[in-house]
Amino acid sequence: MKARVFLLASATCLLLAACGSRQDLDKATQYGPDPQLPEPSRGLLPRMRVPKVIGWAQGETPAVPPGFRIEAIATGLSNPRNVYPLANGDLLVIESRKTAKEPIERPKRPVMDWVEARAHGGSGGNQPSNRILLLRDTNGDGKPDAQSVLIDHLDAPFGVVLVGGALYVADTDAILRFNFKAGDSAVAGPPTKVIDLPAGPINHHWTKSLTANADGSKLYVGVGSNSNAMERGVEAETNRAAIWEVDPATGAFSVFAHGLRNPNGLTFYPGSDVLWAVVNERDELGPNLVPDYMTSVKRGAFYGWPYSYWGQHEDLRVRPQQPALVKAAIKPDYGLSSHVAPLGLAFYTGTSFPAQYRGGAFVGEHGSWNRPELNGYKVVFIRFENGRPVGQPLDFITGFVKDGQARGRPVGVAVDRTGALIVADDVGNTVWRVTPASP
């Protein structure tokens, strides 16, 4: 008990060190291509607000705009972090939980462990996780009614992509290939390792997003940084904060783009070869820095981390600086506001939603912990014109937090073959499906 009191007292002192930063910035000023960037504030830890997790009551759902309906198509899951619809109508649900607890190498590590535990509220309990479920509609009513475990004993899986008869799965430490095609009920044989991915006993950003180009000849995997702002040193960040391009036939890889602190939601804009991602930016510069973002990703480009943010705004905490890299840093395409923690991205390719949604982007915002006013905890929609994001985001799915308590937190998003939007909710242990309301 004394140790616990000491920890809480220490945490309070650390929190007070971050006080005094500007709190009144309108979040709307940080949307779009030119977000407002206040002066940074410093502190060992930010001011925190972590909602208590209570889960969804029976019959309770998130809220969607008029003209739509939302329903749970899978409940009682164990940390569903991602979803992947198959062409035959089946749905893969990726259940994932960080497997290794990081060693206490810094005084703030116990505080961060508390934040992570509270933010997930023991989500999933002692149920099995780190597996992929297969959901199938067997009676043709458009809703899955059969559920089975397709792949078990994975290591914090997240990204999944199917290329012909090969199902690629991004574990936290490797890309694996399974023999599987749409319509199968089981994988055929053990997996083949395609390539190792950076992990280790300290594995700060453990989710690995995954996609493939149109012909399946290349895979693209997001590898997040191993720290907030390179405080663990350059060696700990080798080939991290980057998107890799991987040849699945040989396992050879190259860094496609770098300086992206935690890239997720990798996907190509429909009908193009333009790769897009959502990125979690750095912390501990204040409640309104740095805006997380959605961006197209250019081959060979540098996006700033850790030396700068939003182009050439230097992060003076990082030493030594790299002026040449900062000068070359690319500004992202679209700010999402600060600390929303975007983890899912899907372009709307269906036809069942109204025309204004076609070609636009849905973003799953997992939500903040490091600012006094909560931000995120919703799925937003961003309209596109001529392949570019325009205007303000629309709050599309809300209600994950009510009265300061978390019912759930959205993560991965996807569009199925019927045009429905599918959302993984890792705290509510639910998969949600959004369709047009019946006339």
Keywords:
single chain; 439 residues; Neuraminidase; 3 helices; globular; disordered N terminus; Sorbosone dehydrogenase family protein; 6-blade_b-propeller_TolB-like; Quinoprot_gluc/sorb_DH_b-prop; DUF7133
Summed up, what is this model?
Pfam families: DUF7133. Keywords: Signal. With 439 residues, this protein is mostly beta strands.
Describe the fold and architecture.
- The structure is a single chain.
- By secondary structure, the protein is mainly β.
- The chain has one domain (51-436): TolB, C-terminal domain (Neuraminidase), CATH 2.120.10.
- 8% of the residues lie in helices and 33% in strands.
- It is built from three helices and 32 strands.
- The protein has helices at residues 2-16, 109-120, 323-328; strands at residues 31-32, 52-53, 68-74, 80-85, 91-95, 131-136, 146-151, 159-163, 166-170, 174-179, 192-196, 210-212, 219-223, 242-246, 253-258, 263-268, 275-279, 291-297, 308-309, 313-314, 334-338, 342-347, 361-365, 378-382, 384-385, 388-389, 394-397, 401-402, 405-406, 410-415, 421-425, 430-436.
- It has a five-stranded antiparallel beta sheet, with no helix packed on it. It has a four-stranded antiparallel beta sheet with strand order 3-32-31-30, with no helix packed on it. Strands 4-5-6-7 form a four-stranded antiparallel beta sheet, with no helix packed on it.
- A hairpin with a 4-residue loop joins strand 31 and strand 32.
- The longest helix has 15 residues, at 2-16.
- It is globular.
